[in-house]
């Protein structure tokens, strides 16, 4: 599939990704946590988001959640021109087999949404993906050796063999990278972990299941991250840091649109929105 030219949306500050292969990533680093939490602009969040945030016992987890959802709304607003609090966020019907309902993959509601997106956050790091096609992202801390050994038997047999062939000291990082690829893909599908982790091979010798591109992407030193994109073409990633100040100002659109700090190891650092 060839990539079509990007096109602006009236009233938007950011240009949409190209059809098919291009993926925009926005990363909010953990160094902001605890910085002026009382000044975060939470009024744009839905009642459900605010209730969910209030349910976290630990301040660290609550701040991560709030920052992730404020960031998501503001990034999507910059692409669509819709005010953060007015974005028609919804969920697809779920096929998990547990009663159905609208608790599947998050989407912008509408018959033909302009963009697809995915959100992940873990231990102070927020990762947002924006694309034209179905997309999933995952970020998490590098797991411990104990967690690694406990989870390896749940994987695809070929993945188990690859990980068990590694030296003990290399296994946690390799497992973390693999697990982030698996979660990103399952989020892109919309099934999440209701689909068995053993069904799909996402090991080192595979770009992704048929029709998908799945790969690890830049993250922080103690985290691993991955993205999955529904595209037959190689994934073209533009990864940028999300300005910390975007959590606090009344209107972050131009602040986000003018950001040019490229994340380390981004393979497409020459791209500009």
From TrEMBL:
The keyword Transferase applies. Residues 134-199 form the 4'-phosphopantetheinyl transferase domain. Gene3D superfamilies: 4'-phosphopantetheinyl transferase domain. Pfam families: ACPS. Belongs to the P-Pant transferase superfamily. Gsp/Sfp/HetI/AcpT family. This is 4'-phosphopantetheinyl transferase. One of its GO terms (biological process) is lysine biosynthetic process via aminoadipic acid. It comes from Streptacidiphilus jiangxiensis. GO terms for cellular component: cytosol. InterPro entries: 4-PPantetheinyl_Trfase_dom, 4-PPantetheinyl_Trfase_dom_sf, P-Pant_transferase_sf. It comes from the Bacteria. Keywords: Transferase.
């Amino acid at each position: 599939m060839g990539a079509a030219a990007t096109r602006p949306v009236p009233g938007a500050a950011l240009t949409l990704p190209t059809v098919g292969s291009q993926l925009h990533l926005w990363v909010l680093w953990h160094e902001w946590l605890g910085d002026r939490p009382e000044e975060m602009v939470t009024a744009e969040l839905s009642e459900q988001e605010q209730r969910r945030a209030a349910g976290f016992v630990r301040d660290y987890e609550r701040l991560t959640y709030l920052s992730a959802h404020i960031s998501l709304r503001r990034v999507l607003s910059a692409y669509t021109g819709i005010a953060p609090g007015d974005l028609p966020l919804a969920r697809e019907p779920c096929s998990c087999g547990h009663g159905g309902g609208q608790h599947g993959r998050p989407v912008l509601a509408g018959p033909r949404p302009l963009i697809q997106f995915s959100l992940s956050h873990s231990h102070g790091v927020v990762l947002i993906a924006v694309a034209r096609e179905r997309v999933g992202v995952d970020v998490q801390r590098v797991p411990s050796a104990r967690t690694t050994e406990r989870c390896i038997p749940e994987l695809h047999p070929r993945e188990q063999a690859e990980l068990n062939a590694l030296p003990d000291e290399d296994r946690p990082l390799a497992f973390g990278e693999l697990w982030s690829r698996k979660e990103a893909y399952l989020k892109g599908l919309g099934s999440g972990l209701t689909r068995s982790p053993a069904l799909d091979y996402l090991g080192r010798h595979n770009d992704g299941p048929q029709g998908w591109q799945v790969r690890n992407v830049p993250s922080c030193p103690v985290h691993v991250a991955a993205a999955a994109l529904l595209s037959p073409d190689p994934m073209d990633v533009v990864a940028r840091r999300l300005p910390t100040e975007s959590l606090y100002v009344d209107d972050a659109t131009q602040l986000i649109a003018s950001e040019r700090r490229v994340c380390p190891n981004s393979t497409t650092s020459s791209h500009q929105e």
